[in-house]
Amino acid sequence: MLINKIEDVRNQVKEWRKEGLSVGLVPTMGALHEGHLSLIKKAKEACDRVVVSVFVNPIQFGPSEDFDKYPRTLEADTKLCDGEGVDVVFAPTPNEMYGGGRLSNDTLTYVCPPFFYVNKLCGKSRVGHFDGVCTVVLKLFNIVQPDFGFFGQKDAQQVIVIKKMVKDLNVPIEIVQCPIVREESGLALSSRNKYLTEQGKIDALVLSKILNNIKVCYNKGITDVSALKETVYSFLTDKHELEYIEILNRETLEEEKNANKNSIALIACRVEGVRLIDNIYLGE
Ligand code: PAF
After folding, report:
1. How does pLDDT run across 153-206, given as a tens digit for each residue?
2. Which residues contact 86 (CB under 8 A, 6 or more apart)?
3. What angle do CA 91, 94, 100 make, to 5 degrees?
4. Which of 43, 179, 189, 259 lies at a CB distance of 3.0 to 4.6 Å from 35, suitable for a disulfide?
5. How far, in Å, is the centroid of ligand 1 from the Cα of 57?
6. Listed residues 130, 156, 178: the one ending a domain
């Protein structure tokens, strides 16, 4: 069932609650792929009813980012959700979510995650991005009031920031993190892969190759983070614009001198101008 209005999704969830049913929310920006479907499958296993939100959230995009060209494929998304037995696809308009006013923190209440969590990795180049993410996610949580929220490990910093928000603001929702889904080639699935040409997809394999190589080196006993990070340069060509490579604590995003079983290696790199991210746990 496709619902666009906040009031309608609230009423539907209220009905389910009366029947004592548990509810899972899978927040998405649409352009659904197998990665999203894996979140939906997990939600279906864990919950009696599943809501998938499809909303390209304007306030998490910077002024020079791809908000206007971000793929919008609601009809196909709804079909995919129907195929997975999703109970409600909640696809509000920006006006429904934010009203008609100017979208800025002069006029809207924002949820701003702590600087320590966002002054690095994606938050460093995408200033304000996680304010937009936390604001919309908390709004979706308040609208749907699910028991569980499902998020993908590919956006590792996002999951950590959302978990922190949920803990700090006592939001009564359990966050479930699901593993990265990859193409057979190793490329992590992303809605932004749609922007890549066939050659671009091949060039983009550098991200998973770099991460796998770091893990191989770690498994061989190299733990010095600087030495592990140095290994990336032999993979990069003029097709790649590296934004960051970091090895941090996988729960807290703290820097460590030596990698260990709790470390995560994270990369952001542009290929054909498309900003791609990926990560790998070293201890698994
Ligand atoms: O990961 C995403 O697709 C978005 O950041 C989210 C969580 C749906 C919030 O808009």
Report:
1. 999 999 999 999 999 999 999 999 999 999 999 999 999 999 999 999 999 999
2. 40, 44, 50, 51, 52
3. 145
4. 189
5. 8
6. 178
| Positive or negative torsion for Cα 192, 198, 200, 205 | positive
User: What's the CA-to-centroid distance between 140 and ligand 1, angstroms?
Assistant: 11
Residue at 158: amino acid letter: Q
Substitution site in 28, 60, 135 for ligand 1 pocket (most atoms within 8 Å of beta carbon): 28
165 alpha carbon – ligand 1 mean position (Å): 15
Residue among 130, 140, 32, 133 at smallest CA distance from 86: 32
Nearest CA to ligand 1 atom 1: 28
Quick one: average pLDDT of 41-58?
98
Return left, alpha or beta for 53; rule: phi > 0 is left, psi -120 to 50 is alpha, else beta. beta
Q: Are 50 and 43 in contact (CB under 8 A)?
A: yes
Instruction: Give me the chain's average pLDDT, please.
Output: 97
Cβ neighbours, 10 Å, residue 149: 25
Assess whether 11 and 141 both reside in one domain. yes
Task: Identify whether 36 is a catalytic site residue.
Answer: yes
Q: Which domain holds residue 171?
A: 2-178
Calpha distance 213→208 (Å, rounded): 8
SS3 state of residue 253: coil
Q: Are residues 81 and 144 in the same domain?
A: yes
Statement to judge: residues 7 and 89 lie in one domain: yes
CB 134 within 8 Å of CB 165: yes
Asked if the model's pLDDT at residue 277 lies above 90, the reply is yes
**For tokens 């770690």, what's the residue?**
218
Q: What is the mean pLDDT of residues 227-236?
A: 96
Q: Within 10 A of 220 (CB to CB), how many other CB atoms are there? A: 8
Which residue minimizes the CA distance to atom 8 of ligand 1?
28
